[in-house]
């Protein structure tokens, strides 16, 4: 088996506490806030902490743990390389998977939107949250801004390597039923298992 060398992350799409999910999608990027600390290229954790505590004194002054956690977000963002995978959850309903195409850069034009710390991406796929395994979904829905998901890499690979349903009109078995004025009609091939049928129904965008 070929070793999977890519890294996997999850980022929340709210830099500067503003909803930027659509902006991420439209401009093929992910971003962090805290733009007042400027370009963090070549800075280590302690230097980033110093900038956070100076520029955002009301939030971080004398709060080593909080500033250290935020500095960790920047170290993760700067460690992203082309080919790495990032999950972006939104509204507790969908999760977008993107691939990093170029590493960290500071974009001064985005300071006004407080999202100047940028990594460029391209879309892999978008899924419903309910398609994720329970443990992965819990990690994805955590409130921390940016985390590593490397421990879930095999589950994530299954998500975007998943082969979509392809309709084949041959060798179908048809089922139909009615109840309380409602009806359902299904056509499936003979080799479909009940669990696969459940998975298909769960993937439908229905109440």
Please summarize what this structure is.
The chain has 207 residues and is α+β, with helices and mostly antiparallel strands. Helices cover 30% and strands 28% of the residues. The protein has two domains: 8-160, ph1033 like fold; 172-202, no CATH class.
Number of helices: 7
The total strand number stands at: 8
CATH fold topology of the largest domain: ph1033 like fold
Q: Name the poorly predicted regions.
A: none
Report how far the terminal alpha carbons are from each other: 40 Å
Rg to the nearest angstrom? Answer: 21 Å
How would you characterize the overall build of this protein?
The protein folds into two domains: 8-160, ph1033 like fold; 172-202, no CATH class. It has 207 residues and is of the alpha+beta class. The relative contact order is 0.16. It contains seven helices and eight strands; from the N terminus they run βαβαααβββαβαββα. The protein has helices spanning 21-27, 45-55, 57-60, 64-79, 134-140, 153-160, 194-202; strands at 8-11, 29-32, 85-90, 94-106, 117-128, 146-148, 172-179, 182-189. The chain has a six-stranded mixed β-sheet with strand order 2-5-4-3-1-6, with helices on both faces. Strands 7-8 form a two-stranded antiparallel sheet. It is elongated. Strand 3 (85-90) and strand 4 (94-106) form a beta hairpin.
